[in-house]
Amino acid sequence: MDKTQTIKASAQTLGLTHTKISLDEILHTAQENDYSHLDLIGYILDCEITYRQDKAREKRIKEAGFPYPKYLKDFDLSFCKAISKKQFKQLSELAWIDGIYNLILSGPPGVGKTHLAIGLGYQACEEGYKVSYTTMQSLIKTLRTEEIDRHAGVKMRRIRASNLLIIDEVGYLPINATEGNMFFQLISELQERTAIIITTNKGFEEWTEFLGDAALATAILDRLAYQCDKIPMNGKSYRLENRKSFLEEMA
Ligand code: ADP
Ligand code: MG
Question: Is residue 130 domain-shared with residue 203, that is, in the same domain?
């Protein structure tokens, strides 16, 4: 084995993946820039750290289970009158995740609830938080099957270990008493441990209706509202306002 082969094998043994796969590039850069021994060692370690951080971030994003990417930078605040610049900045800074605050985004379809929730989730992944995204419908199915389905078990374990849980589309479909109780158990369990973002098309007075039980609805809302920002996003649909008409485009 020549020297580079030996070094690559040692890097692999030590788990220095970047050094192993990029040794030739590293040596090339060092030669081009006339690195001293110290420069080179520093460079190798820095590259390895960056590589690991990137990998860890990608893994967090993958495991969060977002249906598609949405970013805060693309969220047009001038369109969303419900949120002030200051509030948006505070939300983006994510201190509320450490403070275990919840966020309830309510409003009609198309106003940007899911965009904002996923955007905050992505930002949280970037900054090292463990995030889980689920729709309410999928969450209920997962809760129902967690004991018998391995995937559901894994998903629930991940949800319970998350710093931030996003539950999208709460209230779109009614749930029965057993499911309502499971949901309540989960919310109680996560209280004081996990920040939760809920998006819903229902006003609070309508929660009783889709949960089918006034006492349960009150109990769940009571838990969620303990440390919570409620943001009613009652503007116009971004989709409808920004839809491009085929005829307009052709004109
Ligand atoms: P909701 O979840 O409230 O039904 P979405 O978040 O799915 O709405 O938004 C619908 C579409 O409009 C998405 O493509 C989203 O990216 C876009 N959108 C909504 N609000 C905004 C906004 N304020 N700035 C940029 N895009 C927006
Ligand atoms: Mg949505």
Answer: yes
Do residues 93 and 187 share a domain? yes
- Boundaries of domain holding 147: 72-240
Q: Which atom of ligand 1 is nearest to the CA of 108?
A: 3
For a mutational test of ligand 1's pocket, the pick from 238, 240, 243, i.e. the residue with the most ligand atoms closer than 8 A to its C-beta, is 238
Check residue 213 and give left, alpha or beta (phi > 0: left; psi -120 to 50: alpha).
beta
CATH number at residue 143: 3.40.50.300
> What is the tally of structural domains in the chain?
2
Q: What span, in angstroms and rounded, lies between the C-alpha atoms of 66 and 78?
A: 25
What is the three-class DSSP state of 37?
helix
In this prediction the pTM is 0.90
User: What would the pLDDT profile of 5-61 be if each residue is shown by its tens digit?
Assistant: 999 999 999 999 999 999 999 999 999 999 999 999 999 999 999 999 999 999 999
